[in-house]
Write a structure and sequence with these properties.
Radius of gyration: 46 Å
Protein name: KAP NTPase domain-containing protein
CATH architecture of the largest domain: 3-Layer(aba) Sandwich
Keywords: Membrane, Transmembrane, Transmembrane helix
Pfam family, one: KAP_NTPase
Strand content: 5-15%
Shape: elongated
Number of domains: 5
Distance between the termini: 91 Å
CATH topology of the largest domain: Rossmann fold
Length: about 1000
């Protein structure tokens, strides 16, 4: 044997030890690669293991490139898959190049088999050689491999170099010189002795650079200790599996079993079981929970059974090694200590939380006393935000013109108020939470003075206050809509309903004005309906009162002057002095009085009008019979008279609406809880809305929350005499109450269903404050903006809009294009995403959709249902077109949120069903649980036989058993047409 050691500069001291061990594709019973990884881990190496595959070269390059000064890097490469001489030569050449560029202390490559013997059988082959390294790198390097003892093919009898090295490190037998350190040279000589002793047809080879033979790989372990009877089973099983090296300690034994011999499920179960209490045995359900991370899921029996089988195998594997106890999780505390060291922080937290929940479920836990309040919220826990954005986008669409009424229908407790509050929050950020955006009539925010009151009295002005402009907004000014919230159930009679509506509109709009602007607004409005001369007289009277002390002082001055002059006449000797004093008193006193009068008058005129004319600069009380605005003034006679009360309310609202509302930017009035009102109040609200729709206040959009069946019944009661005088119409014809609703509710929309699949569990978790578990859908993200949002959001929307337009989408593929832009752009925070699209992307898509949607498509879809339309009333036809457009927009927004895209034919059919049979919508779309809805059954029966159609009508409650049901032929004709709309109706209606 001949050695070739090339002298090189001494390698730096080793500070860190790292290893990359590739596992063999078919690991033998001795688990050679795993044993080497375990041995290195026990020596303090940072060990990474990887499976052999296509990424080997890249992994090795990345591992070697990450070297730092002072590192020892060890790579174990498996070539048992059939490498040839060329591949091995390329590997060694690449390793040499890496040594040349390395800054580490040492590099060591272990290859089980290498082609180092040439075909020249007569040549002597040296077992120690030099790596072909150019230059003088600072790193020491070595490569350990084996090759055939004779030239030729790969030997048939194999001896694993990796297994030999692992045994030498674990047992310390490789420390042949007994210096306490196992070097590369020691490992090479130990491998030579083992191969010779085993009679193998392989021979170890060593290639080095620098002090490669002297690289310290491991320290010699101490003597093995007696482990006791608790580990007898594990020791016996080690011997059976071909692991002859006795473990040094119980911890090392458990670590070797874990690293080398256990399967993945058994390893996971062992380390997670360390979180069990000492008196908590590993039961089957606990083993399932620890292995999977959550308890068995209901309804997934196949997967549960498969996982249970894997868990049972893992438990049997741990029992076979004698690691599990009978009444405790483990046979010995050393098992817990060794396994716990392999549990990382993230896994510890996740499994500990699951165990904590399980333990709480099996013991008596004090329930929380917190009661969930029944109050609206704009935090989206039900997935309603997408519907709120759809309605808001429709309201502010350039083609949407007031007056307009949208009905949000749903049963009590379905979330109508929360949905309307979300719509309000989108249209008017902050208003739903009592922080509406301010508006301005002018920039003069100082309070009006008495002088201004007199000036306005002398010069009458138009009562119109002018057009207000919004202040700083978190959205484009064109997207902002002023909003008002009205609860009619707070008012008990017709006059109070009118007064309440006026009060809410007037107060909520004017309260947005700064104080000075608000007082000027009320000053102009109040001066238009009172006796201006009375105001002037009152101002003069108040001014005279302010000047009264000055007048008294002036009178006193005159008296003193007259007295002095009289005394001068009576006493001639003092005449000159008295006359001089009288002149001084008269002149000085008069001057002082004049100055004082001017000062007091100026102070009076400069005072806030809220002192002398408080009634003129504040909102009048319209909830009761109005008093005098200013005591002593004579108001407009119509202000006091009951007959003029309606005129007063209309006048006030007209001025307020003229300030903030226009056809392009209407005022949106939300009317909540209409179904809670008394029949008389419901009728009065309907009449009030009709007044708006008739053109008295055209620049308004009403959003009504109600349960339509209840409201229709209230109308029937309120107009009982009229309802009884009408001829009966039957089920196919709506009653009086429904006719009223058809008139005022132009665009009906249902609150989305709380289906059991996703929203119901998410909402329940949100109520209880429970986070989503593994495999569960989290609560619906919140996607809303606040009034303090940065204007950068608006710039982001503009950029996204430009990108979407650049891709030239059509109305049909707009949602796909929007998702493409979302993936390639930073579109905002993930928590605002619904259906994969952020709030900014959805708004940008809305803007593009406004320009893409074509009325030609609407006409084509509506024309296809003309044969069954049967609408001869122009108003009904107009209403149908509006409903079609509204549902088109709603379904488009639902598609952006991930719902299936509804076609124009479906929307046209759904809109016709809404217009013709509004009183049947609740019946037809009522959630039946697991079965089909009545509409679904009717759609299936419509093209079938008459008998089947009759049975479907009877099952829906539209006819009695056995009745022909010919009066429903129009409905049957509609439902016979394709496509079916029952799924869409369930979500929209």
């Amino acid at each position: 044997m001949t050695s070739m050691i090339v002298t090189a500069p001494p390698a730096p001291a080793i500070r860190n030890r790292k290893a990359l061990v590739f596992l063999d594709p078919e690991d033998g019973p001795e688990h050679a690669a795993r044993r080497l990884a375990h041995a290195l881990d026990a020596e303090g190496y940072t060990v990474r293991t990887a499976a052999c595959g296509d990424e080997e070269q890249r992994r090795v390059e990345a591992f070697l490139d990450a070297v730092e000064p002072g590192d020892l890097l060890l790579v174990r490469w498996s070539t048992e898959s059939g490498w040839g001489r060329r591949e091995f030569g390329a590997l060694m050449a690449e390793f040499a190049r890496r040594v040349e560029r390395s800054d580490g202390a040492a590099l060591l490559l272990v290859v089980d088999f290498g082609w180092l013997i040439t075909v020249d059988g007569g040549r002597s082959h040296e077992t120690v050689g030099r790596l072909r390294v150019s230059g003088e790198p600072v790193s020491a390097a070595a490569a350990l491999t084996t090759s055939a003892t004779m030239p030729g093919e790969r030997p048939g009898r194999t001896v694993s170099l990796t297994a030999i090295l692992a045994d030498g490190i674990l047992s310390g037998a490789a420390d042949l010189d007994g210096d306490g350190t196992v070097t590369v040279g020691d490992l090479f000589r130990y491998a030579e002795e083992r191969c010779a002793a085993l009679g193998a047809d392989r021979r170890p080879y060593l290639l080095t650079y620098g002090e490669g033979e002297l690289i310290g790989v491991a320290a010699t372990p101490g003597p093995a200790r007696h482990l006791g009877p608790a580990f007898g089973t594990a020791l016996a099983r080690l011997a059976v599996t071909g692991d002859p090296v006795p473990p040094l300690s119980a911890t090392e034994l458990v670590g070797r079993v874990y690293d080398v011999h256990l399967g993945e499920n058994a390893r996971r179960l062992l380390r997670r079981a360390t979180l069990l209490d000492d008196d908590e045995p590993l039961t089957p359900d606990l083993a399932y929970l620890l292995t999977r991370g959550d308890p068995p899921a209901a309804g997934d029996e196949a997967r549960t059974a498969e996982t249970a089988t894997e868990v049972e195998e893992a438990v049997r594997e741990l029992l076979a090694w004698g690691l599990l106890g009978e009444r405790a999780p483990f046979t010995d505390p050393a098992v817990r200590h060794a396994a716990a060291a392999r549990l990382d922080a993230a896994e510890h937290a996740r499994v500990a939380a699951a165990l904590r929940r399980r333990r709480a479920a099996h013991r008596a836990v004090r329930p929380r006393t917190r009661i969930t309040g029944d109050r609206w919220t704009i935090t989206d826990r039900l997935g309603h935000r997408v519907h709120a954005e759809a309605v808001a986008a429709f309201i502010r669409h350039p083609d949407t013109r007031p007056p307009l009424t949208i009905g949000v229908k749903g049963p009590w407790g379905a979330g109508k108020t929360s949905l309307m509050r979300m719509i309000q929050d989108v249209l008017d950020p902050g208003a739903a939470e009592g922080r509406p955006a301010p508006i301005h009539l002018n920039r003069d925010q100082t309070a009006p003075t008495n002088a201004e009151v007199l000036a306005r009295v002398r010069t009458p002005r138009d009562g119109a206050p002018g057009r207000a402009v919004p202040g700083t907004l978190p959205l484009r000014e064109g997207d902002w809509r002023p909003t008002v919230w009205f609860n009619p159930w707070m008012y008990q009679n017709g006059e109070q309903v009118w007064a309440g509506l006026a009060h809410e509109i007037i107060s909520q709009v004017t309260d947005r004005l700064p104080r000075g602007e608000r007082e000027r607004f009320w000053l102009a409005l109040n001066l238009a309906r009172i006796d201006r001369e009375a105001v002037r007289r009152r101002a003069y009277r108040l001014a005279l009162i302010r000047l009264l002390p000055v007048a008294l002082a002036l009178c006193a001055t005159l008296l003193l002057t007259v007295a002095a002059l009289a005394a001068a006449t009576l006493v001639p000797s003092l005449g000159p002095a008295l006359r001089g004093g009288a002149a001084a008193v008269g002149a000085g006193g008069t001057l002082i009085a004049v100055v004082a009068a001017v000062v007091r008058l100026a102070r009076f005129l400069g005072e806030s009008a809220g002192t002398a004319f408080a009634g003129l600069v504040s909102r009048p009380e319209v909830l009761t019979t109005p008093p005098d605005l200013v005591e002593g003034l004579t108001p407009d006679p119509g202000y006091r008279a009951r007959t003029g009360f309606l005129h007063l309310v209309q006048t006030d609202m007209r001025h307020v609406l003229g300030m903030v509302a226009s056809a392009e930017r209407p005022l949106v009035v939300f009317v909540d809880d209409l179904d809670r009102c008394s029949p008389g109040t419901v009728a009065q609200v309907i009449e009030a809305v009709n007044l708006f729709l008739a053109g008295e206040f055209p620049d308004c959009v009403f959003v009504l929350a109600m349960e339509p069946d209840v409201v229709a019944a209230h109308v029937e009661v309120a107009y009982g005499d009229l309802a009884r005088s009408l001829p009966p119409g039957g089920l196919e014809r709506s009653g009086l109450g429904w006719r009223f609703l058809e008139k005022i509710v132009q665009l009906p929309l249902s609150v989305p269903l709380l289906d059991d699949g996703e929203r119901l569990p998410s909402y329940l978790r949100a109520l209880l404050g429970v986070r989503a578990g593994a495999g569960e859908h989290p609560a619906v993200p919140v996607a809303r903006r606040g009034t303090g949002e940065d204007t950068s959001v608006l710039e982001l929307v503009d950029r996204l809009e430009a990108r979407i337009r650049a891709l030239r989408p059509s109305a049909d593929d707009l949602d796909a294009v929007a998702r493409q832009v979302e993936e390639t752009a930073d579109a905002g925070p993930a928590e605002t995403r619904i259906g994969g699209l952020s709030a900014a992307t959805r708004l940008a898509a809305d803007r593009v959709y406004d320009d893409l949607y074509s009325d030609e498509k609407a006409y084509a879809a509506i024309r296809r249902v003309l044969p069954v339309l049967s609408l001869t009333n122009p108003r009904e036809l107009k209403r149908y077109v509006n409903v079609f457009r509204f549902y088109s927009f709603v379904t488009y927004r639902r598609a952006l949120a991930g719902a299936p895209r509804a076609g124009d034919d479906e929307v046209a059919k759904l809109a016709l069903l809404t217009i013709r049979w509004p009183h049947l919508l609740t019946l037809l779309t009522r959630d039946p649980g697991d079965g089909p809805t009545a509409l679904d059954s009717l759609e299936r029966a419509a093209p079938a036989s008459d008998a089947e159609w009759s049975r479907a009508l009877a099952a829906a409650g539209l006819t009695g058993a056995g009745e022909a049901g010919t009066r429903w032929e129009a409905l049957r004709a509609l439902l016979t047409t394709r496509p079916p709309v029952a799924p869409l109706a369930r979500d929209v209606l």
